[in-house]
Target: TetR family transcriptional regulator
Amino acid sequence: MLGMRQRARSLQDKAHRAEELLKAAEAIALELGGVRHVTLAAVTERAGLHRTGVRRYYSSKEELLLELAERGWGQWRDAVLAEVGDRIGLDPVQTAAVVSTTLASLPVFCDLLTHASLHLEGDVDIERARRYKAHAFAAHDEIVRTLDHATDMTSSQLESLLAVAVLVAAGLWQASHPTPTLASLYEQEPRWGHAALDFLPKLDSLLKASAIGLTAATPPCTGASSWN
Model:
């Protein structure tokens, strides 16, 4: 029994330390303007851990950031559940607003959407990539089911709306958070500064237009959902 308690305590301590590293990485990304500024040295220093100790929890910076992206999917799911609550009868514009506001409330996740598909998924071993995909798809499916109960949009339309949301959010976040070099360039050449978009208003506008277009192109039908 003593051995089992010690093992449980050890596992609990390890989980707690891993969570501290994730929080440190997220805080650095928020403070410095993106995950591109996150380094293992900075993360371990913020978490109060020796820099060689991080390898006990994450084999690389890429694995740590992929873990943060995985958690982001769960946070987005939870944000949608909270935002929808017991509401029903949402029209396409209201549905798009739920998607845009909840997604924009997670800036580090929006940033990571670019990095995850660009290189993080490919820079970890296959089992770690499998776990990320499994959790991401599970969260995605729960978001679709939640919205499906609250809106007249079909599950197929909702899947398309989420696909647009992820792709647009990933690109817009990068454009609306330029590097210092680009920010200086936009000050010198204001006509090029259109790329530095105001993130939430533009995301919201594009998703509302997409939701309206999706429902106009494929109006909802009665009967069973096309999901699954």
In short: The mean pLDDT is 88. The chain is about 70% helix and 0% strand.
